[in-house]
Design goal:
Number of strands: 10
Number of helices: 9
Number of domains: 2
Radius of gyration: 22 Å
Strand content: 15-25%
Distance between the termini: 33 Å
Structural class: alpha+beta
Order of helices and strands: EEHEHHEEHHEHHEEEHHE
Helix content: 40-55%
């Protein structure tokens, strides 16, 4: 949940669409009318899960994204929805208002266009922003309930799942609601299974506490320092790498030299992998001689 003394507080969530492997994607953005229909169904689903949610302002977009597009420092997709909704016409009270952004002549407003670089993944997300201008306590109660129960019990309604499938041209196996903290937990588990558990604390710092620092210093992993909103990866030449990872090695042993050369190439590949993951999440990366 986000707060600001001069603005509504917000709960950041998403409709998660788990796709059949190899599912084709006909389109990643919906025209305004279809986006509004999808938003209305999302509102109905959340109200069924928790009737109190009808008092909140719901903002979403008729588009779907890869998790890395949502999990970025500052939550830029949700912030874009917040900024666009602030300019949307208001009729009466904000309470219970549903705002949907769709495409016009094939283009989504602002910076809401999904990135083609991340298309084709097995999990696609429709971002949802829930806000309250005069009911911060209500949103706090709803947010607490959502954080505790939404992932386990927040299955999307059949009408919502069917509309998303037909409108986007997807093959949806499951459709459920989750908060960004649920998404963080899911992603951490996926990265652990992918052998990236050591990078997660640094990425989590960038997402949840971007003003803090975090250092990854666990040989044979790359040496990485997150500070001032950037990830600094230490540049190590073969000599420096050997001093850090294999001190005292006998450089006159040809078999050992070959093994170390292979390990160094793996290390360089690991650096590139870390950099690619961090940049996909919107974290700037620099290669530094010294950290």
């Amino acid at each position: 949940m986000t707060t600001n003394d001069d603005a509504p507080v917000h709960l950041l969530a998403a409709l998660a669409l788990e796709l059949t492997p190899g599912s084709p994607v006909e389109r990643d953005g919906l025209p305004q009318a279809e986006a509004a229909t999808l938003a209305a169904l999302i509102g109905e689903d959340l109200a069924k899960f928790l009737p109190e949610a009808t008092a909140l302002e719901l903002t979403t977009v008729g588009a779907h994204y890869d998790p890395v597009e949502l999990l970025r420092p500052g939550w830029p997709l949700h912030r874009e929805l917040e900024q666009l909704s602030a300019r949307a016409p208001v009729a009466g009270t904000d309470a219970g208002r549903v705002i949907a952004f769709g495409s016009h002549e094939g283009k989504l407003p602002g910076s809401l266009a999904p990135a083609a670089d991340f298309a084709g993944g097995p999990l696609r997300l429709v971002p949802i922003l829930l806000g309250a201008t005069g009911g911060d306590e209500v949103l706090a109660r709803i947010g607490d309930r959502f954080e505790r129960e939404l992932l386990e019990r927040g299955m999307a309604g059949a009408a919502t799942a069917l509309l998303a499938q037909e409108a986007f041209g997807l093959q949806v196996e499951h459709a459920r609601y989750l908060t960004v903290h649920d998404l963080l937990a899911m992603t951490a588990l996926q990265y652990e299974h992918a052998g990236l558990a050591s990078l997660w604390p640094l990425l989590e710092t960038a997402l949840l506490a971007p003003a803090n620092e975090c250092v990854l210093d666990a040989p044979p992993e790359p040496l990485v320092r997150y500070a001032d909103g950037q990830a600094h990866i230490a540049f190590l030449d073969p000599v420096a790498w050997c001093q850090r990872n294999a001190p005292g090695s006998d450089s006159n042993d040809p078999a050992l030299r070959e093994r170390l050369a292979v390990q160094f190439r793996h290390f360089e590949a690991r650096q590139r992998q870390f950099a690619e993951v961090l940049m996909a999440h919107g974290v700037p990366v620099t290669l530094d001689q010294m950290l």
